Amino acid sequence: MSATAAQPEATYALRPPFSERWRQGMRALRANPTAVVGLVIVVALVLIAIFAPVIAPYDPQKLDMEVVSQPPSSAHWFGTDQFGRDVLSLVIWGARLDLFIALSAVILSMVVGTVIGAVSAYAGGMTDEITMRTMDILQAFPRFIFAMGIAFAIGPGIGTVVIATSVLNIPGYARLMRSVMLPARKSQYAAAATSVGGSHTNVLFRHLVPNCLVPIFVNSTLQFGWAILEAAGLSFIGLGVESSAAEWGALIQLGFQDFNAGHWWIYTFPGLAIAVAVLGFNLLGDGLQDMLDPRRQ
Amino acid sequence: MRMLRYILRRLLFLVPVVLGSIFIAFLLTRVVPGNPIERVAGPYASEERVLEMKAEANLDKPIPQQFLIYVNDLLHGDMGMSYTTAQPVGKDLKERFPASFELVMFAIGLAIVLAIPLGVVSAVKRGSWIDHVARVIAVAGVSAPIFWIAMVLLSIFYGKLGWLPGSQGRLPIIMSPPPHVTGMYTIDALLAGDPVTFKEALRALILPVLTLALVSMAPIARMTRATMIDALDSDYVRTATSLGIPRRTVVMKHAFKNAIIPVLTLIAGVIGYAIGGEVLIELIFSWPGLGLYSYNAIMSADFPAVQGFIILATCLYILIYLIVDVITALLDPRVEY
Amino acid sequence: MSVKQLSDDLNARRISRRRFWQGAAALGLTATGISVLERGALAAPVQFWSVNRQDDREHTLIVAVSENIDTFDPGFTVGSKTAQTAIQNTFDQLTQYEIVDLVAPDGTPYKGVNTLNILPMLAESWTQDGDKLVFTMRDGATFSNGDPIDANTMVEAYKRIYETNAVSTFLLSMGGAVTGADAFSAPDAKTFVIQMSKPNSLVAQNNTMHNTSALNPNQIKEVATEADPWGLEFFKANLGMGNGPYMLESYKPDDALVMVANPNYYGEQPFFTKVILKVVPDASQRVQLLLNGDVDMATQIPKQEYETLAASDEITALSIPSNLVAMLEMNTTLAPFDKKEIRQAVAYAVPYQAIIDQVFNGQATEAKSLVPSGMPTSDFSTNMYTTDPAKAKELLAAGGYDGTPVKLSFNAGIPEWERIAILVQAALKEVGMEVELEKLPYATFNELEQGRKLQMWTDEWISWVNDPYYHLSWLAASTSPTNYPSFANERVDEIIAEFTLSDPSPEKDAASKEAQAIIIEECPYVFLCQPNWLFYMRSDIDNYVYYNDELPRYYHFTRKSS
Amino acid sequence: MAEKMTAAPLLRVENLQTSFFTRRGVAKVLDGFDLELRRGEILGLVGESGSGKSVTGYSIIGLLKHPGKIVGGEIRFYGSKGDQQGIDLVTLPAKQMAEVRGKEIAMIFQNPRSCLDPLMSVGDQIMEVLKYRRGMSKSEARAECIRLLKTVHIPEPERRMNAYPHQLSGGMAQRVMIAMAISCAPTLLIADEPTTGLDVTTEHQILELLREMRDVTGAGIILITHDLNMAAEVCDRITVMYAGNTAETAPVETFFSAPRHPYTLGLLASRPRLGEEGDIPTIPGNVPDLIQRPTGCPFHPRCRWATEICAAQEPEPRVIGEGHVVACHHTEVVARDVIAAD
Fold first, then answer.
1. D–C contact: 3+ Cβ pairs < 8 A
2. At C167, which CATH number?
3. Which chain A positions have a beta carbon within 8 Å of B272's beta carbon?
4. Given A100, B120, B136, B321, which is the most exposed site by the fewest CB atoms within 10 A?
5. Residue C430 lies in a domain
6. Chains A, D: CB pairs < 8 Å
């Protein structure tokens, strides 16, 4: 622990409340241009996702054989695809579907992972040992292949993509949760709470978990990017969502079918959408990680 | 000797992990609906033939028994026969391994060469525009989908410019591989003293390696930056500075050496990820490695091949971690062994 | 010790040439055989020094293919085109089709085959004598190691097909034409006889295909084990010693299959002394390689690439009418498609023209009957299905469609299916049927299709034998293993049973048309179109011959001198 | 003792202002701080956490970390050559400052084990300094290293040289630190809480060692500590800091016998004494927010003698005795009260 004398030694008990740290974080955000770029991208994406029906100039599912594979024009800024669908509209609606998939995958792995990690840390002993070894095994699995295997096993669809992209994130969360929990378990929080007669479950979930959530939240921001990429990868090899869905990976996959025909707009714009979205989440997560880590302020 | 004992102890400790991975790999293939025999047999095979084939593959037995048979075979070095290549899985994996290994090693090497300086510069110039640019560069590589990068790189450097070979695998199609020693064409070509083959093997590696390196860079750069910042803020760096040790020496000798140890562990993870994760790269570049093999295996429900690959990948992952642990133990006097 | 092992050993320089000769002699190989083997074996390691390698580019044909070998056993190849092509080029059959000059609809002349004129190949001559096919064996035909081929060889080979219950059994015994292994005999070494249950023209046609390729009985004996007397394990993983113009030099999955000219071939030596089938799994990369001239040919090219390739001066793009029918199939035993009206509604909803234009780049013709237009007795006249959403809605209502969404499944490996599925999904949505698309890896797709578990799906069919009854037997007979819609109609079954093996007659033709009309009316299949056979090669490659099994015979090809 | 008091000054800090530019605002951690150190003198710099003691140390040696910055004042250092003019460390270019560090001014820190590079043997670390700072060859450095380790009373120096920091006890590590610090014979040694985390016996030994080093090298030492007992044990003079200002400076005897600043009184009252039971009185209130400093005397919100003037005007340091300087408006009142209480 490197404590510079300019700052009072931070002890666990003395850490300021979450709201204060959050305010500090927000202040810090302003001093961190890359994170701000990330935040702007993420907020923009979320807005696009929410208001997709309003923003999108066309119905993304409307096939129009009159305007097949048109390059970008004033009528279709991003051109049209092989079915005459408006690529811009598809990309906009894609934000909705992709964010939904990523959010579901992250939440699923976060919930399962943190519960496993928390219980494991709290229980200790054999339970902890066995759980963590299982996590070791999962973590040693080749990631994409495992996702492919799961997707293959349960068949295509949105739910499949969510499950396939989330399973291998579970160990990460469990480990993180456990590492945060172990010192926390010994801290005043737990002692104080048990001394006033809280039950174990109560202690576990009411007191310890909230104090571990910040690093997990930061980690999730980074996981978002991965989830989007992995979902796109699954779509590319045909194990993803429905072909006609407005999902970025599926759009790229369809676009690549016309790669040699030079219809670059069909695959480039969804590709850029993914790149921008993932970049946004990564920059934001990276920045948050810096800011919420007291040592790197 | 002490190190050897340490390695043995670590290996022993890993036995349950390997067993567990075998079990999960086995389970994963058994939850797949249906079974591969019907597909392999085709629509024309008679029912008796299908049953016969199932019996041969032990798929007619209860799953626990299948597992025991599988583990028993494994212990005898038999990973089963692949349904897609009609060859023993062990032989398949052995043939594919050098192709993937060569690709991954070059890529990780490139990623390290690019990412670590980026991370170090970022940390040393923390908060400056250099830091921000370096961080964006590092993160940008991991942001675009890997298959998208691969396709675009190919269309530019092969399709448009013709500078680099296209999706034709490890050597130009009409060239035959150098005499087999390691299975890694660049090394084998050098051993054979064949500069032309070496050059071509290297050229074939450029694009897939670049693609894989781009996605491997970000975590390494990010981790280097973080550990480097910690190290630069550390008490021992302050001590060295307070004693007037030149800045260069402080940064490179004290801070960097300390910062790199956790990065090594991360690199192990990145290698592990790459070995199983370059499926899409191998697919697009027609690279006859483990990724393409496992892709074909999964897409054709080739149980033994999928299981074999997962077990190999898991063992490799563990092995890499072990190697890193050993390196760490050698570098860091605090590690007890 | 096997021949292969021996040559491998020599290859890897694990043994000296002396030991090789000793081993070879021990294996009972003839001197010619040994020298061939030795040449083949030595070829690879010597080669790496020949930096030039460009020398033989002129006579090397490079083909980008999409897939690996699934099995090398000629009796069992039904999946991998690469496997079928390798077998077709390394084995001759007893007979072959006559090659004729044809002209494509766009005016391009090309070579094709006349399936009605079957010429001898390994046989010197053949005749059909009532219920007997009699082949007179050629003098001097040998396997690539020099082992002679005579009538007894053929008996062994055909016996293996029957004894192992191979896929080829299915072909030869269609309609009960050839009932068992005892149907094959050799009255003398030069005469090989196939005894049929009754006179028919089907067996002679089926017999021209690669599935009847004869393995070397000596090699079978060598690799056989007690549990596996026919060497099934061995021949699955290893290409048998052939008798055709090429022989296998090497095969590495996901890399390449290399064939070289067979010096012991009884016929003419091919122009291309070496053929490399390079596995390039990604379709657009195969096109890139072809456009850049790194390969001479590319197979399994998605239809949407036609325009790009046809526009290139450096590429010859052939668009040849074929008997392939692309179909939307419905399971007649699963709701809602167990109702004829619902199936017909789908037939009225499908956007036929959009599929031909958008999916097949216009390189397809309309298909209106199960029997394709290029096959005798094909009859489109009773087909009334056009794209008519109003009519489709009407029929959906008549069929009592309750609005339950249906699943349209397709094989992920083929981009055309995906495009068709998206078009069909939109069209059906328009008439009030919600469709979920289910993109399946081919393994899953095949399994579910064969298990009759799909609800609605896309698939295609081409009959290698240009005979409507052969075709109907596969697709419409209720007992057929490939009648995936589970279509069952007594009259159709009756017609197939009665006429499949019968001699040509006006009644036979009329019955075929009757069956077609019934199938159109019952509508288990919606005939989307007949896509043309598209074949791409570099412009300097010449002499492509189109066979209706779509497998290229590389020994025909030549390279134009520049 | 007396002749040391009259010795030439080694360091004179005048009106030093060091601020931390945090995201919340500018924290004036040192706000016009004065200090004087003579050669061969041990000066105790005491105060609560956050009073700016360590920042003073870092300001002098030029190791302030971002976002800390010296914004005003002078640190005049008279160096080993006894330069009459001295050099101003505040304005000294970074390159020359780096020359000064280690050679002229050295610093030892708290948590000595973490102050040594965990990956290098202690011998290598000392030899590294000798190599870079004194241009020694490897063999020279080795010999010198052994000598230095002997100087700081490390037994078996040849063997200990090969030890890694984690293999050393805290006290041993601090000895190594001291050996490194004196390796270039600096004229000024800043010791920042050098005994934190050490047991009482070791603490005593380290302090003894510091004194010995002063005697041997004649260097001036600034001992930064919050522990008055420790300061009493080893220091010649003590300066009390409060919120970045000098509250009181006095020779050690005067400091304990006649303290005159209210804050000093509070500190003295709250120090733990051996053998005493019961509650230790603490100074009420908290260290002030350095971003929004109180007006006038920074201590006034906590001071029981505070009057209106204290809030309005910052007290000027006043000399009230031999080397005794106090910054308080009410020194006389305090003195009267203290004497009365005694």
1. no
2. 3.90.76.10
3. 140, 142
4. A100
5. yes
6. 27
- What is the token pair recorded at D9? 């000054």
> In terms of domains, do C34 and C148 share one?
no
CB contact under 8 A, C482 and B43: yes
C-alpha–C-alpha distance, residues A84 and A70, integer Å: 8
Q: CATH number of the domain at C345, please.
A: 3.10.105.10
Partners of A64 on chain C (C-beta within 8 Å) are none
Per-residue pLDDT of chain B (337 residues; tens, 9 = 90+): 778 888 888 888 778 888 888 888 888 777 766 566 766 666 667 777 778 777 877 778 888 888 888 888 888 888 888 887 878 899 999 999 999 999 999 999 999 999 999 999 999 988 788 988 888 888 888 888 889 999 899 989 998 898 999 898 899 888 888 998 999 999 999 999 889 999 999 999 999 999 999 888 888 998 899 899 889 988 999 999 999 888 899 999 899 999 999 899 889 888 887 876 688 999 999 999 999 999 988 888 888 888 898 888 888 888 888 888 888 888 888 877 6
DSSP state string for C8-41: HHHHTTSS-HHHHHHHHHHTT--HHHHHHHHHHH
pLDDT tens figures, B128-155: 889 888 888 888 888 888 899 998 999 8
Letter for the amino acid at C346? V
Start-end of H helices in A168-263: 170-186, 188-195, 200-202, 209-236, 248-257
User: Which residues on chain C are in Cβ contact (under 8 Å) with A148?
Assistant: none
Token pair of C163 as six digits: 């004894």
Q: Which residues of C touch A155 (CB under 8 A)?
A: 438, 440, 444
Domain that includes residue C366, residue range:
325-531
Chain B interface mutation, best of C254, C259, C260, C473, highest count of B Cβ atoms under 10 Å? C254
- For residue A201, count other CB atoms closer than 10 A to its CB: 10
D98 and B240: CB-CB below 8 Å? no
C174, C208, C233 - which closes a domain: C233
Option in C44, C51, C450 nearest B43 (CB): C450
Give a yes or no: residue C439 inside a domain.
yes
Instruction: Say if residue C276 is exposed, middle or buried (CB neighbours under 10 Å; 0-12, 13-18, 19+).
Output: buried
Same domain, C378 and C486: yes
Q: Select from C215, C233, C251 the last residue of a domain.
A: C233
Q: Coil, strand, or helix at residue B109?
A: helix
| Chain C residues in contact with B285 (beta carbon < 8 A) | 285
CB contact under 8 A, A243 and C437: yes
Give 3-state DSSP helix, strand, coil % of chain B, rounded to 5.
75, 0, 25
Look at chain C and report how many structural domains it folds into: 3
C29 located within any domain:
yes
Residues C356 and C422 in one domain: yes
Is D115 in contact with B239 (Cβ distance < 8 A)? yes
Burial (CB count within 10 angstroms: exposed 0-12, middle 13-18, buried 19+), residue D83: exposed
Regarding whether C24 and C159 lie in a shared domain, the answer is no
> Does residue C481 share a domain with residue C338?
yes
B179 in contact with chain C, both atoms CB, cutoff 8 A? yes
**Segments of chain C with pLDDT less than 70:** 1-55, 562
Is C253 part of a structural domain of the chain? no
Neighbors of chain C by Cβ distance (3+ pairs < 8 Å): A, B
Distance in angstroms (rounded) separating the CA atoms of residues A273 and A250: 13
Same domain, C204 and C130: yes
Nearest CA in chain A to B222: A286
Q: Which residue has the tokens 């050059």?
A: B199
Q: Are residues C416 and C346 in the same domain?
A: yes
Collapsing DSSP to helix, strand or coil, D339 comes out as helix
pLDDT recorded at residue B11: 82
The whole-angstrom distance between residue D153's C-alpha and the CA centroid of its chain comes to 23
Hey, are the CB atoms on B277 and A142 less than 8 Å from each other? yes
- Counting one residue from chain B and one from chain D, the pairs whose CB atoms sit within 8 A come to 81
Reported as a single tens digit per residue, the pLDDT across C356-386 is: 998 998 999 999 999 999 899 999 999 999 9
- ipTM, two decimals: 0.81
For residue B171, give both structure tokens.
């050597």
